[in-house]
Design brief:
With 288 residues, the protein is of the alpha/beta class. The chain has a single domain (2-287), classed as Purple Acid Phosphatase, chain A, domain 2 (4-Layer Sandwich). 27% of the residues lie in helices and 25% in strands. The chain has seven helices and 14 strands. A six-stranded mixed beta sheet has the order 1-14-2-3-4-5, with helices on one face. Helix 6 links the parallel strand 7 and strand 8 (197-201). The longest helix has 23 residues, at 2-24.
Length: 288
């Protein structure tokens, strides 16, 4: 009996150690994106993707995260949402401090995830927590792309950055409405086929619709890499409780569209990551 208790105790200690290690040790994943639609002025432009921080902190004042980002020398930073936790006692000051520091060094483009949306729609939070968070970030010069398009200009050339904020119903675990191409166009209009377009879309589940819309590059998060990752099988479960989701992390291709799906930087509620370390995604645009 004592031996069994001892073994269980050792397993629990090892599990807790693994959880701490997985949640606090960053990885950097690097990709190259090739397209003949890219203007020559955007050749070799480097972009960092941040998502799903959930107010997590890597070292004091996020010094470890900042150092890893600065080491990449990006030209821009894209934020695909869920940088805080969506409840009425949300603590977001670590995230604010991080984004304030980054905004002094880089151009930042930000779309809401479902956690920001929850705050933006909640009666107790929309005019308090969310408004304060949004207004402070806007004062830092961060570009919000919630269902709109902003042009990034280098010399006389431009690319588009569009942010898609779908209704919260599309995140439901059951009874989700059917996604349609018409709904995407209702949210963000038509895609300009002549201009290279980056689509920030927090939920990767609807990649085929993003590709049909015309996005050249989709940047997503939300799935947290599937919580646990297993060799050959990949991510185990999505936030919608889909086992072994096809879109779990990494790079996906569909027709002429590419999606980069980050494992994210934080966790919330049940703070578990197994073989699934927090991730900074870095990609370089290359004109073919």
């Amino acid at each position: 009996m004592m031996e069994t208790i001892f073994v269980i105790g050792i397993i629990i200690i090892l599990f807790v150690f693994l959880m701490h290690k997985e949640n606090h040790h960053l990885t950097v994943s690097k990709y190259k994106i090739h397209s003949d639609k890219l203007p020559a002025e955007f050749d070799n432009v480097k972009i960092v993707l941040l998502t799903d921080l959930h107010n997590n902190s890597f070292g004091k004042n996020n010094e470890h995260l900042l150092r890893r980002i600065r080491n990449e020398h990006p030209d821009y930073i894209m934020v695909a949402g869920d940088m805080l936790i969506g409840h009425n006692k949300a603590d977001y000051y670590d995230t604010l401090n991080l984004l304030e520091t980054l905004s002094k060094e880089f151009g930042i483009y930000y779309v809401n995830g479902n956690h920001e949306q929850k705050l933006a729609e909640g009666e107790e939070t929309k005019d308090t927590i969310y408004k304060e968070y949004h207004d402070i970030l806007a004062a830092y010069g961060i570009h919000f792309v919630h269902n709109k398009t902003i042009k990034i200009k280098r010399k006389d050339a431009t690319i588009n950055v569009t942010g898609l904020e779908i209704a919260s119903d599309y995140y439901h675990k059951i009874n989700r409405p059917e996604m349609t191409n018409e709904y995407i166009k209702k949210c963000i209009g038509r895609c300009d086929p002549k201009t290279y377009t980056i689509l920030l879309a927090h939920n990767p589940m609807y990649f085929n619709y993003y590709a049909d819309w015309g996005a050249d590059l989709v940047l997503s998060g939300h799935v947290h890499g599937g919580i646990m990752r297993l060799p050959l099988l990949g991510g185990v479960i999505s936030p919608q409780y889909i086992l072994f989701p096809h879109f779990d992390s990494g790079r996906f291709e569909l027709n002429s569209s590419t999606m980069l799906l980050s494992r994210g930087l934080g966790v919330h509620t049940i703070k578990i990551r197994i073989f699934n370390r927090p991730e900074i995604m870095v990609f370089t645009l290359n004109k073919e």
